[in-house]
Amino acid sequence: MNHPEVVERLAILNAAHPRKLSQGLHHPGQLRRSWYFFFFDLPDLPESVVHANHWHFFRHFLHDAHPAYTPEEMDRYIAAWSQPGAATGMINYYRSSVRTPPKQAEEAIRQVKAPTLVIWGQRDRYLGEDLAEPEHDDVPNLDRVERLPDASHWVHHDEAERVNQVLTEFFAPAKN
Question: What is the pTM of this model?
Fold first, then answer.
């Protein structure tokens, strides 16, 4: 995050803090889970692969959601992915995470002082649960990590009502 000072409250859904992710990528188990980071680093090939067979590559990543995405929901994802530059933009997120030299990435990390909530699906196939909680020095006002045992990486889909409840409570104005 380049400008954490403009954030009053922060909620994160199944995304690791950059320092935790970097540390995780030094362990074989997380490397196996995150193989696609390195595939996306290849020039041009990922864009061709993700477009092929009506977006099969991206659709595959959504298959561990429970309940399954409906055909209508999948059509909305495909429409979004099909926008000019959308696939490359998504892929570039991963490219950046593996192309940025470690020292430069470390120097770019800014402390997030805003109260922060992490919502984490414990059945995430892509990110190990040890990545859920950021270091105290990076996020000193971590409110909590809300772990949802039956949710996958797609926690907002799998446990939509619970996620909405937790977010609403977290962002609600303080009662005096």
Answer: 0.91
